[in-house]
Amino acid sequence: MTEEQLNRALDLMRRLPPQQIEKNLSDLIDLVPELCEDLLSSVDQPLKIARDKREGKDYLLCDYNRDGDSYRSPWSNTYEPPLEDGTLPTDRLRRLEVEANAAFDQYRQMYFEGGVSSVYLWDLDHGFAGVILIKRAGDGARNIKGCWDSIHVIEVQEKSTGRSAHYKLTSTVMLWLQTSRPGSGTMNLGGSLTRQVMEQDGTVSEPTSHIVNMGRLVEDMENKIRHTLNEIYFGKTKDIVNGLRSIQPLADQKQKQAFSEDLANALQKRQGKSDP
Amino acid sequence: MAPDDQISDQEKVRIASDFIRHAPPGEFNEVFTDVRVLLNNDTLLKEGVAGAFALYNKDQLTPVKLPNSSIPSLVTEHNDIGGGRFFDPRSKQSFKYDHLRKEASDLQAWESDTAVESWRDALESQFTEYTANHYKHGVCAVFGQSRNDSVSLVACIEDHQFQPKNYWNGRWRSQWCATLTGGTGELQGTLRVQVHYYEDGNVQLVCSKNVKHSLTCSNEVETAKEMVRLIEESESEYQLAINENYQTMSDTTFKALRRQLPITRSKVDWEKIISYKIGKEINKAQ
Fold it and tell me: pTM of this prediction?
């Protein structure tokens, strides 16, 4: 029964307005408490920002850097609120995590020119996994509020030779746009494009090769999703609106169409007559 | 909350009803089935949540086919006469409405309010022509009521496109209320658009706008023409404004969130980023 309920819950989250994700998720967990853990790990929510006071930098919160009610900062590698035995990556993995945060910080600056990024890694049996998070809020120019949230989950299977690895990436990007203006009232265009899977092999000559391989995969994935977001948000949904109502009177259009059909027929007849 | 802490039945009903009422256009059945399985209590569903079905249908201005008429009517709060029955002023009938099956039955004759019928009828004529002229599959209805010395008219339009096979649905709703007192009138409109796209995701457009106009009333036909003129102007202006917003969102807002490529116009040189870091580390070690 619980598996069917989880499927129904996920279906519901795909239909309810994403503008109320947090409220919907909270209500859903209240209604079916047994699904709590599964829902928290499979439903993406807009990323929240926290401040690492020690390092003076912002970081992002998600299920992967959470332990109980505390969250681990990727800058100081400590939990806030402090935890006695909070889960920490191994030393080897922590070194890689530091490098990854620095590298994706630069990636973020080059593409987003602002915002916050965080990378969290954890060990697997034959490799490791990680999440790369990016949050970019707009400056409200032209009276439009916008926000972008990236959630990239990557799985790295290291081959026994240690010279290559297999990378599997699953990504979700959330895009939120809203405006309130006299001419158009309130307009809220938001949601996410989910889980697309990209797999690739890569050579590993030193530990930091992982960052090069992961970086390229994430970059390609994000560029693809950005393209799709552009098409869906500003192409598809707009076309649907304009299909519901026509600014031009439909009678005029029918007339125009009838006229151009008549014209085409007349031209054809003319050509028929002048042919030898 | 511990897993065995249960919320009250009242809270469950509130949550289930909220979910139902927020079903995107064209997806009521799917949301209903989801909620039914999650609530797992058909008695509670029938007793506590059934009211939400009616509220949803009325809020959506749901079109309804009448067995003996070629022109559909709408299910709204304005033609709700209680006991699960609604009236259709165009065909002068009332009907029983099944909110789950979305079907009309048990048609009976219904008398309109004679004090306002000439005004209502005149507006219905003009409004029906207007709807046909701008909404390919639009359905409209005009309701009239006399209130003391005023004539109260409500005109609604609904148009939708449901394409679940292509993972999208959309609906437009217009609701215009006119109060005519003596030689003057006030026209107030609420325009709503909702679009849901859900292939590999969940993207929704939710828009609404309120409009107000004042008008002078002469006779029934002239006043109806004036109202429809204002309505056409407002709705087209609204549609243009939405399109303008789309342009700005795509040209300005979206671009400012994430570039297509870095300012160098080429993808990131990851080897360079790493070597820079290694360089730093080597410097640190010295």
Answer: 0.92
